[in-house]
Batch of 2 targets.
Target 1
Amino acid sequence: MPTQQVITLVLIAVAVVFVIAVYVHNRNRKYTDASLKKACEEFLTDLPDHSLTRKAFLNALKRNYNVGPKEALFLLGHAKKKGFITVDGDRVKLAETI
């Protein structure tokens, strides 16, 4: 085999290993209920009516956890299921303020 083919195969193998490692790392990401509750409180307590629009709340989750839109939506649903927040139409509120 020529040297150029060997180098190309090695680079492809390294790229595949890197993609698999990133996938496994992102898949094993864990979110604790305590950190999610703290994040929800940080986003909403300083506001006068303790509420944000759903889009702004999702953007805050994306920035805080450095995740994409799907995981931010998952975190929103998880926080709602755990009772940290409530969703009224397009507004997200702390559960204690309702």
Target 2
Amino acid sequence: MKRISVFFLLLITVLGQVFTQGNQPERSMNKILYENCLELISLMHETALSEVYGSLIPNDSLRDKTEELLIHIRNSQYDTPKAVYQLEFPEDIVSFALQLMNMIDTETTEPPPHIKKKIYDTFISALAFQLNSMEGGVLNATAASAYTEEQLFVAPEVKQSGAYLFIYKDSIPVYVSVIVGKDGAVKAQGVYVFCDKTETLSDEDVFEKFSPFGIKSVTKVNMP
């Protein structure tokens, strides 16, 4: 666990100094992916509204402390997104991370493709938890973890793993990681991103929030 924490700490520190925001061409989000993301976010909100589910969180003290965050979620509205941003990850993030940890000699050794994909997918899936932890400590990370959801579906048109940030008016944003598997299988994981200015997140705000994690750019996508 300590090794993993060091990995993310070093990755955040160094990558944040390497990549900058760039202008990206206009693009549209795949309709099947978009619809499943909306369904996922709806399920997340349904879970947050459930007092029965909330009562199952085992730590009473932690449950009391996360109540304020939960109230913000419950007061949010997740109908039509105000904006959807696609996060652009650097292509060499896996090899860079491995070099950073001195795990491979890049001149003689290259990890198998499935290991590289595992590292890449894990980084994408864990990013929102790391962001919540960095900005709000264990409290935000715990609340985000308790109310995350996953959605499995088939979408052969979705070819690459990635991540999106869904922004709603006066509501807590949702980070959705998209992991592509075999035979068109896709797993989407939704995580609430707790922040202080959900009403005024601009393109620059979104990039600023994620750039310390190596995101080289964010692109507002057209919704189907």
